[in-house]
Structure formats: C-alpha cells, structure tokens
C-alpha cells in the first residue's frame, strides 16, 4: 500500500509539467479569442492615442527649446562644441494581432500596407522622442550624427514569439561652450 | 565615447584598433508569456524594451572595458547591431574604434 502511494506521488510529480502545459493550452484557447476581440475593438484607438501622445510631447519639447535637437550631420554645424558623449534610446513596438490580420489581407492585394506603416512609424517617432528626452535629461544641448536602426524581434518569421520590431536611435550628444 | 568620426575639440593622436562588446540575453518564460499576451493588443512591449536596454548597457560596458585594456581614452564611430537569435533572446553588439586623444 505504502509502495503504491510512493509511485503515485512520483507519477504526479513527473506529469506535473505536462499538466501545467495542458492547463495553459486550455486557458489559451479560451482567452485568445476574447483578447483578439478586445484587440479588434480597442487596438486602433490605442495606437492613435500612442501617436497623439508622442506628437504632443514632441511639440512640447520643440516649443520649449525653439528647435529640434536632433541632426544627422556628422560633426554638427557649430564649432564651439566643448564636450560630447553617446546617447541612445530604444523601443520595442509591435502591431496588434488585429492589425496583423488586416496587414495579411492587404498583403494579398498588394500595394502599400498602411497599418504596418502606421505602427512602425509610431514606434520610430517614440524612439526619437525618447532620444530627445534622454539627451535633454543628460544635459546635452544637441544630438548630432543621429542614426536609426530597426531590428526584427521575430526571426525566421516562424510560429511563436512576438511580432515586433525594435527601433533603436542613437547619436552623439554635444554641449556648446 | 561618440558615434562621430572625430571628437569635437580634441585631436586623435593614435588609433588602437576596433573594440567590441556583445551580449546575448533573454527574459524568463513568464515575461515571454505576458509580453506575448500584450502583443495581441499591439503597442509597446515594455519588458522587452527594458531587456534590450539592459543588454545594450552590458554590451557597451564590455566594449569600454576592451578599450580601457588597450589604454584608449576615447572610442569614436560607435555602431550598434541587433539580431534576434530566437524569439525572446537577442544579441546586442556594439563596436567602435579605440583612440588616444589629447
């Protein structure tokens, strides 16, 4: 009897990971449609809010400085630079699954895929705004030689993993004397 | 450390070769699940942004250590490269030219 009890415990312990996996699978099949509907209803609104938020912060900063601190010129345009150092900002940004669906349908027809364009440019604007903010926070007057990289977070385009891009902006912060 | 070819206001006297630093990092599976759920709704994936920020800091730190060991005083023309090894694990690579300045 005691022997049987021990085996039962061992069996349970061994099957625990699989049970958890099954439980997760069941939860996923129930939760996913609900979340997809949620995304259908609200993701466009969320994206527009994000764009509006970035744009307003950008405008606020530009108004307070009187100019855009970012330039892509190597070496800058002024000769009175006293100190310099690197600044960078990154953001991982993805389309919602609803936008992915629209994108796939657009892809069949061909032409420009506006939804993806909107998502990626929203992410890029956010990264650039963070670069501005981090440069100002670190006490730099301007950022020269700005470069923007975009890297895919989902390699091989396979199943699983997130569908997102990382936008990474970096440049050299300079201080004028 | 700058990503321009010269340092404004300084003279480069000697180059000490290419220095680099890289790191591969991943978040735990719990984070992967929550970020996967967040991805359905779209928008920013905050934890992945944090992950990349931390790893980039580490890559930069290694690059700077490499430059220090060569006796450099600055690194110019710094470039970054990112590649996703698998979903959720990213390789961050930073490289530049170590120089002596005066």
TrEMBL record, chain A:
One Pfam family of this chain: YbjQ_1
Matching InterPro entries: UPF0145_dom_sf (IPR035439), UPF0145_YbjQ-like (IPR002765)
This protein's record includes keyword Transmembrane helix: yes
Record SUPFAM superfamilies: YbjQ-like
Transmembrane portions of the chain: 12-41
Superkingdom of the organism of origin: Archaea
Swiss-Prot/TrEMBL keywords: Membrane, Transmembrane, Transmembrane helix
Statement: the UniProt record of this protein carries the keyword Membrane: yes
Name of the protein: Uncharacterized protein
Automatic annotation (TrEMBL), chain B:
Alphabetical list of Pfam families matching this protein: YbjQ_1 (PF01906)
Signal peptide: none
Gene3D superfamilies the record matches: Hypothetical protein apc22750. Chain B
Family: Belongs to the UPF0145 family.
HAMAP family reported in the protein's UniProt record: UPF0145
PANTHER family from the UniProt entry: UPF0145 PROTEIN SCO3412, UPF0145 PROTEIN YBJQ
Protein name: UPF0145 protein
Organism: uncultured marine group II/III euryarchaeote KM3_162_H08
């Amino acid at each position: 009897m005691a022997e049987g009890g021990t085996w039962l415990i061992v069996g349970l312990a061994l099957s625990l990971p699989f049970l958890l996996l099954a439980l997760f699978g069941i939860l996923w099949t129930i939760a996913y449609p609900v979340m997809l509907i949620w995304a259908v209803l609200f993701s466009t609104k969320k994206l527009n809010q994000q764009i509006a938020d970035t744009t307003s912060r950008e405008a606020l900063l530009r108004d307070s400085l009187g100019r855009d601190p970012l330039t892509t010129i190597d070496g800058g345009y002024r000769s009175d630079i006293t100190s310099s150092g690197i600044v960078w900002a990154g953001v991982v940004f993805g389309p919602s699954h609803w936008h992915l669906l629209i994108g796939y349908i657009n892809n069949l027809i061909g032409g420009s895929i506006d939804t993806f364009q909107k998502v990626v440019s929203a992410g890029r604007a956010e990264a650039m705004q963070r670069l501005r903010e981090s440069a100002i926070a670190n006490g730099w007057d301007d950022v020269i030689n700005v470069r923007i990289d975009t890297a895919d977070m989902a390699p091989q385009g396979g199943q699983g993993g997130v569908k997102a891009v990382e936008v990474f902006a970096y440049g050299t912060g300079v201080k004028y004397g | 450390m700058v990503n321009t070819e010269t340092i404004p206001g300084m003279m480069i006297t000697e180059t000490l070769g290419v220095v680099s630093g890289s790191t591969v990092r991943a978040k735990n599976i719990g984070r992967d699940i929550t970020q996967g759920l967040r991805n359905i709704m779209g928008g920013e994936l905050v934890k992945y942004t944090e992950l990349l920020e931390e790893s980039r800091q580490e890559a930069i730190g290694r690059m700077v250590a490499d430059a220090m060991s060569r006796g450099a005083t600055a690194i110019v023309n710094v470039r970054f490269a990112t590649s996703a090894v698998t979903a959720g694990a990213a390789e961050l690579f930073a490289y530049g030219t170590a120089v002596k300045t005066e």
